[in-house]
């Protein structure tokens, strides 16, 4: 096996192969849950070949290998463990046992929303392509624009359908029932939520309750998926098997949609709007303060794994305005850390260490910063702080320019496609990256003597 030496050292660090309870991997990290955490030799974690860093979070020992490589290491680990059918479901159950209530809520939201990101990323890319073609002077005509509107608007118009499906699946219910309930929540018989909000339509009044569609809603669809799943589990305990096929879906569907339309739905819509608008208000604080703070600290969320919770805000921004400033600020935060890491790598005298550090930064260009953070910046407090200040500078520039993306899920170089509405917008995006990178880079160079002593 290609990574036999890596695994041999890994087993030594975690207290032996038999101490591994469960394991999984994400885009960059090998995640391991152990039977006995006290057996870990953390001081030896840096000696694992090919590994760019190690940290412990929410009961998981996480080893950073980087995009692509982590898949190969994981495959070799499965062969050695003799478990070709490792269950990701069991791994998630083990992870949840180690989470606090707040962490469980955030992790649950991430598990529901993250599977939707590829569809929303594609929609954002299509918006970018439309903007680029229009900027180049391509004439579409009414039919062409209508067709592009179908491509770019459908995912958001039927967002509750996608979320209800994902939530129902997450909570263990029948996803098809989730889809049907989601479709009912955006049915054309209900006044469109956006039209009502804009004053172009009036709510449907039933029993004195004003009903509107749930276009763009997130939390009500999640609650609907949760209700469907819980009702199904309860009903299957009391409904005879011969009647289960008819009674269980009928009751779970009708009760859920009734409660959502007449009781919980209207309340949740108000709560959701209030919470999200409050968060957006803080981000858009006067004088760009919110942008500066967010871009400075966003990479801390990446370290903790909480960055997926931002999806709910990004989706709301795109629903309401068609723009997503969070995307720009995330890129600014990445660029600041990228600049600090490059400057640090260039200060390293050892050619092997310098090469490893530079390779750790490469994935940042495609929106993945874990190798850079754990392999370079977090090892030296001055470097990480320099990167944060660089991100803050990029956030301030974002505020000055009034820049925002047209989609979500892609950042840095791939994110260029979200800023193609004009050449100037495209240039602004590059300016934000350049400012954040330059400030992070220069701050490390200013401290070069102190940092050189730490890293060499």
From TrEMBL:
SUPFAM superfamilies: Glucose permease domain IIB (SSF55604). The chain crosses the membrane at residues 112-133, 145-165, 177-197, 203-224, 245-268, 274-293, 325-348, 383-403, 423-444. The keyword Acetylation does not apply. The keyword Cell membrane applies. InterPro entries: Glu_permease_IIB, PTrfase_EIIB_Cys, PTS_EIIC, PTS_EIIC_1, PTS_IIB_1, PTS_Sugar-Specific_Components. One of its GO terms (molecular function) is protein-phosphocysteine-trehalose phosphotransferase system transporter activity. Keywords: Cell membrane, Kinase, Membrane, Phosphotransferase system, Sugar transport, Transferase, Transmembrane, Transmembrane helix, Transport. The active site is at 26 (phosphocysteine intermediate). CDD domains: PTS_IIB_glc. It is a multi-pass membrane protein. One of its GO terms (cellular component) is plasma membrane. One of its GO terms (biological process) is phosphoenolpyruvate-dependent sugar phosphotransferase system. Pfam families: PTS_EIIB, PTS_EIIC. Residues 107-456 form the PTS EIIC type-1 domain. Residues 4-87 form the PTS EIIB type-1 domain. PROSITE patterns: PTS_EIIB_TYPE_1 (PS51098), PTS_EIIB_TYPE_1_CYS (PS01035), PTS_EIIC_TYPE_1 (PS51103). It comes from the Bacteria. It is found in: Cell membrane. Coiled coil: none annotated. This is PTS sugar transporter subunit IIA. It comes from Halolactibacillus alkaliphilus.
